[in-house]
Amino acid sequence: MINDIWTGNAQGYADAVAYDSAHLWHPYSSMIAPPPALPVAGAEGVRLKLADGRELIDGMSSWWAVIHGYNHPVLNVAAEEQLRCMAHVMFGGLTHAPAIELARRLVTITPPPLEKVFLCDSGSVSVEVAIKMAIQYWQARGRPGKHRLLALRGGYHGDTLAAMSVCDPLTGMHHLFEGVLPKQYFAPRPRCRFGDAWEPSDITEFARLIETHRDELAAVILEPIVQGAGGMWFYHAEYLRQVRTLCDAHGVLLITDEIATGFGRTGRLFACEHAGISPDILCLGKALTGGYLTLAATLTTAEVANTISRGGAGCFMHGPTFMANPLACAVAVASIDLLLESDWQNKVTNIERQLSTSLATCNKLETVREVRVVGAIGVVEMHEPVDLRVLTPRFIEAGVWLRPFGRLVYVMPPYVMNPADLAQLTGAVISVLTELESERVS
Ligand SMILES: Cc1ncc(COP(=O)(O)O)c(C=O)c1O
């Protein structure tokens, strides 16, 4: 079995680790000075099983995707059954039950009038698809000049070129790709926090930008309520409502990127529900398959889809090889059913409550700027950037897996995490940050 490389002998283990660092590119890493990568031999429930026998409680849900935990019997059965039927078949000219059943569920659970579903490979690709839909829509309406996007500072939408162009220009390192990325417009990061009093001036600059550039703008793109990888910032639902109104007033489509927020993470099935709005185009990914397989979806309205289809090309110009991969679709169907049949709202509310109470302890640390929690997302923002080389070994020592970035130490546990494991996770955050602060002082 392939995972036996870890258990065969010490030399085999060392060779595998050396081969990894010599040949495998990890996310955002250097091939000259590769950062350490921990060998994982298995995963079960909320625990990662390291190849050396240690177990870690996973506070990352594998980048926010594994909402039901690892090695889930229901998802395993769905994958095994589909595997026996067919792992893959092209989607051009063919169709299959997993895609149809998935589309049925997505159309039912997302806000109306979203009803046309494009299934693709990853979150970034679904953002590319959304942007292309918006551009083709305006071309079809005889307005090819409307091809730019208005995005928010502090946003993150993926790593492909068009997706990068709408990420925060600073954290998205636009200077590295100067002259290559399409030029987009950026409104300031929303200042009003989720749950605080609304301050009308928060939307002023956005309103000015959309009005000024309406003839160039195909769409606004944003992450509703929670800006994730661009800074883990939670903003006011009224901002979203006003964005929807302004998009309508100025003839600009609204794309909401719920790749991180979708499927319950913020306490609502979709974060748009906090504001009671519906986008023209919606991107989903990550938790769509419960973190089992790579799959994403871009949904749109009949109006957008039919307009595109009546345009010059007579079709939407996108069609990846692994579009609607049956294996991934079958697991996604099982994952959605599992979520809807569970008491996920209670689970997320309980996690939110526990995160709020326990992480509040970090507020007493001088190195901590603030603690914020929404749904099953807990963030400790530091004053200074954190050093992964220092933090990671300490978290591992404390028996947890966390992957902070920038000034942010955050937890996004699987919804199935029990209070004791969650207490160990937050306890590790508190003790490691406290330790580091006392070392700094002494
Ligand atoms: C909001 C958002 N959009 C898009 C993406 C990109 O998704 P993927 O990494 O699957 O390409 C991410 C990934 O973190 C994300 O959080």
How far is it from the N-terminal to the C-terminal residue, by CA?
50 Å
The geometry reads as globular
Roughly how much helix do the residues carry, as a percent range? 25-40%
Number of strands: 16
- Strand line-up of the largest beta sheet: 4-12-11-10-7-5-6
Low-confidence stretches: none
Strand content: 15-25%
Order of helices and strands: HEEEHHHEHEHEHEEEHEEEHHHEEHEEH
Computed structural class? alpha/beta
How many distinct helices? 13
- Average pLDDT, to the nearest integer? 97
Our Rg estimate from Cα atoms comes to 22 Å
Sheet with the most strands?
7 strands, mixed
> Compounds present?
pyridoxal-5'-phosphate
Any chance you could write out the topology, listing elements then pairs?
Layout: H1 10-23, E1 40-44, E2 47-50, E3 55-58, H2 61-64, H3 73-85, H4 97-109, E4 114-120, H5 123-140, E5 148-152, H6 161-165, E6 185-187, H7 204-212, E7 217-222, E8 226-227, E9 233-234, H8 237-250, E10 253-257, E11 281-284, E12 296-301, H9 302-310, H10 326-341, H11 344-359, E13 368-374, E14 377-382, H12 388-397, E15 400-401, E16 408-411, H13 419-441
Parallel strand pairs: 3-15, 5-6, 5-7, 7-10, 10-11
Antiparallel strand pairs: 1-2, 2-3, 4-12, 8-9, 11-12, 13-14, 14-16
Helix pairs in contact: 3-10, 4-10, 5-9, 7-8, 11-13
Bound molecules: pyridoxal-5'-phosphate (PLP).
Question: Could you walk me through the main structural features you see in this protein, from its secondary elements to its overall organization?
Answer:
It is a single chain. By secondary structure, this protein is an alpha/beta fold. It is built from 13 helices and 16 strands. A seven-stranded mixed beta sheet has the order 4-12-11-10-7-5-6, sandwiched between helices. The chain has a four-stranded mixed beta sheet with strand order 1-2-3-15. The radius of gyration is 22 Å and the shape is globular. Bound molecules: pyridoxal-5'-phosphate. Pyridoxal-5'-phosphate binds at residues 122-124, 127, 156-158, 223, 228-229, 257, 259-260, 285.
